[in-house]
Amino acid sequence: MTCHSKRIRVDTVRGSRTIANFCWASILVCGATGFLLVGISSCIGRDLIPGLPSEQIVFIPQGIVMSFYGIAGLFLGFYLWCTVLWNVGSGYNFFDKREGILSIFRWGFPGTSRRIRICIPLKDVEAVGLDVREGPYPRRSLYLRVRGRQNIPLNRISEALTLGGVEEEAAELARFLRVSVEGF
């Protein structure tokens, strides 16, 4: 979503709170819980999951391996749920011509780096760049080339944008900033 006037432009950036991440986190936690329950069932000799007999699974080595995969899957699933709940990677790009600043803000993981903010003078922005890679996993990213710094990405790499949409966004931002577009 973009809000802009003649002097101010704000582009919001979606974070990790997506439907795909919700689905993967749910599937991962459910599957890992199943693995852990089967491993525990083989250890105690009782069926913890109705309809799934555990007599065929010997605790050593299969039950231990199932329990290990269940615990590892729960850790990964809860990690993914935390990134979804904290909406890691979300934020905004704020361009202010009147003040002459560019402010990039992103939410990170809790701790000292929870709020990530980069402020750059607009006069240091040299170009709006476009990185397009086609293939089985296409990547279309928009970045700023800033004098004396590395390229600064403006959108998520995993964002599913069409080539025309990225080109239009790059051209619109370059017009607003009055800089050139590179990488076509």
From TrEMBL:
Query: How would you describe this protein's topology in the membrane?
Result: Multi-pass membrane protein
Q: What are the record's GO terms for cellular component?
A: chloroplast thylakoid membrane; photosystem I
Q: Which is a GO BP term held by this UniProt record? A: photosynthesis
UniProt key word Plastid: yes
Question: Where is the chain membrane-spanning?
Answer: 21-44, 64-88
Q: Which UniProt keywords apply?
A: Chloroplast, Membrane, Photosynthesis, Plastid, Thylakoid, Transmembrane, Transmembrane helix
The listed locations are: Plastid thylakoid membrane; Plastid, Chloroplast thylakoid membrane
- Tell me where it mainly resides: plastid
Q: Which family does it belong to?
A: Belongs to the Ycf4 family.
Looking up HAMAP family in the UniProt record yields: Ycf4
What is this protein's function?
Seems to be required for the assembly of the photosystem I complex.
This chain belongs to the protein called Photosystem I assembly protein Ycf4
Q: What gene is it encoded by?
A: ycf4
